[in-house]
Amino acid sequence: MELSYRKAQFGELAKARNFYDLVAEGNDPAFNSAWRAGQYPPTAFLESAIQSGTLYFAEEDGQIAGGVVLNREAAEGYDRVNWAFRPEGDQIMYIHLLAVDPRMRGRGLAGKILDFSLEIAKAAGCAAIRLDVLRENEPAVRLYEHHGFRRAGEMELYYEGVGTRAFIMMERNVRED
């Protein structure tokens, strides 16, 4: 089946909350996720992403198969990373909360959502796209590296609902291809 993408709409906060809770509850131990249903991601963050038009759903046959937040807002601490790409001004996009419904894993959907994210960044005129991933989340690190992301270092970051954890900081030059 083909994935379709759309921005989450006003009034879909409960749908977003339910999706991310499903992801948190169904996380495979291999992902070493710190996500907890009802705690992470914080509901306020999901609500803000919907209001700003930055939460995207990937759907298959009308069902949410995945989600991602794409914006120009770095988490606190990103300014301390020795990034390889130094675009000017507002030319950086950030990936947050990329997730796939646990019942649909193993079908390459995360890679398709990542490719969609790169297309959004290109269309927005961005030169780089960045993200952080838990150091222990080896499947996600491999996914990002397979899609051209490079490690820019490791650091501890604090996220509400998760606490302070060690993350690998990753980036990709969007104009490579």
Give me some keywords for this one.
Aminopeptidase, seven-stranded mixed sheet, 7 strands, 27% helix
Walkthrough of the structure:
The chain contains 4 helices and 7 strands; from the N terminus they run βααβββαβαββ. The chain has helices at residues 13-25, 43-52, 109-123, 138-146; strands at 4-7, 55-60, 63-71, 92-100, 128-134, 150-159, 163-173. A hairpin with a 3-residue loop joins strand 6 and strand 7. The two termini are 26 Å apart.
Roughly what fraction of the amino acids lie in strands?
A: 25-35%
Number of helices: 4
Strand order of the largest sheet: 1-2-3-4-5-7-6
Q: End-to-end span in angstroms? A: 26 Å
Number of strands: 7
Indicate the radius of gyration in whole angstroms: 15 Å
Shape: globular
Let me know the largest β-sheet: 7 strands, mixed
Class, according to the CATH hierarchy?
Alpha Beta
Parts with pLDDT < 50 across at least 5 consecutive residues: none
H/E series: EHHEEEHEHEE
Instruction: Return the CATH architecture.
Output: 3-Layer(aba) Sandwich
Helix content: 25-40%
Q: What's the overall average pLDDT, rounded?
A: 92
- Secondary structure category: alpha+beta
